[in-house]
Design a protein that fits this description.
By secondary structure, the chain is α/β, with parallel strands linked by helices. Helix content is 45%, strand content 15%. It contains eleven helices and eight strands. Strands 1-7-8-6-5-2-3-4 form an eight-stranded mixed β-sheet, sandwiched between helices. The longest helix is centred in the N-terminal third of the chain and has 22 residues. It is globular, with a radius of gyration of 19 Å. It binds 2-acetamido-2-deoxy-beta-D-glucopyranose. 2-acetamido-2-deoxy-beta-D-glucopyranose binds next to α5.
Length: 253
């Protein structure tokens, strides 16, 4: 290569990197001004779901002053670390801007962390219904029917939330339900490229929250609070996963 053509060969990659930084400098919401009514309940299965999967949503919603509450249905005791993980959850939510008194974690004998067992849908629904009534929840955010990783506990939350909505008895209208779209395997690990692609499918009933670099770093800090879980392959995950950058939430109707 001549020096001249070498210079040119660097020009386009540099341009691409600049363009990338430009796109990622600030968080974005599609459609702009999208409204998920609050108070909002983020319903998760295990401590660390909130930052591994839902950080872009939580950060965006807190940024515009929405009330977000966290309910985690297990302490994630699969490896005997239940108590540690409970404290980590509160600290992680703290980093994401959710106050400690709005975070609750359950340790129910029938709702234990298990990669092989689905949870009892009526039980999940009953817990969700009570929580919604107690705190006047207007919207629930949770997993979709594919549960990101097909984890049966995640999928149980989807079914439980829907059952809770259908059987809601209070005089107020039932909460709306927003589920996190599970992308294909390839899209799952495209990380910041996913943030740029951002799915222009943003159609009716779909809200996209894309983090900027600052929000991504905050999500990483929240992740660091879950130190008991940070084995090396999780660092690979947080480096590459699309959900650390972008959340597509779809309203279930
Ligand atoms: C599921 O939970 C409901 C409500 O707590 C309970 O009545 C029912 O017996 C449970 N079903 C199973 C199979 O455990």
């Amino acid at each position: 290569m001549t020096p001249r053509s070498r210079r040119w060969s660097l020009f386009f990659p540099s341009l691409a990197v600049l363009f990338l930084l430009y796109l990622l400098q600030s968080p974005t919401t599609y459609p702009p001004g999208a409204n998920i009514p609050s108070p909002i309940l983020l319903l998760t299965a295990h401590p660390d779901d909130e930052c591994m999967f839902f950080a872009p949503s939580v950060l965006a919603l807190r940024e515009i002053g929405k009330e977000v509450r966290g309910l985690c249905l297990s302490v994630g005791n699969a490896d005997g670390l239940g108590l540690t993980r409970q404290a980590e959850l509160a600290r992680s939510y703290g980093v994401l801007g959710v106050e400690e008194n709005k975070v609750k974690v359950l340790d129910h004998p029938e709702l234990q962390d298990s990669i092989t067992q689905a949870w009892n849908t009526s039980l999940v629904a009953q817990i969700v219904r009570e929580y919604v009534e107690e705190h006047g929840i207007a919207s629930i955010i949770t997993f979709d029917q594919r549960g990101i990783s097909s984890h049966p506990n995640h999928i149980s939350l989807f079914h439980g939330a829907q059952l809770a909505q259908r059987t809601y008895a209070s005089s107020q209208s039932p909460p709306s339900i927003w589920v996190l779209h599970t992308t294909g395997v390839l899209a799952k690990y495209t990380g910041y490229l996913g943030a740029i692609y951002r799915s222009d499918k943003a159609s009716k009933g779909v809200v996209v929250y894309a983090s900027g670099v600052r929000e991504y770093v905050t999500a990483l800090r929240a992740m660091k609070e879950h130190w008991s879980q940070l084995v090396w392959f999780r660092w690979l995950y947080v480096g590459w996963s699309r959900y650390m950058w972008v959340n597509e939430l779809r309203e279930v109707v």
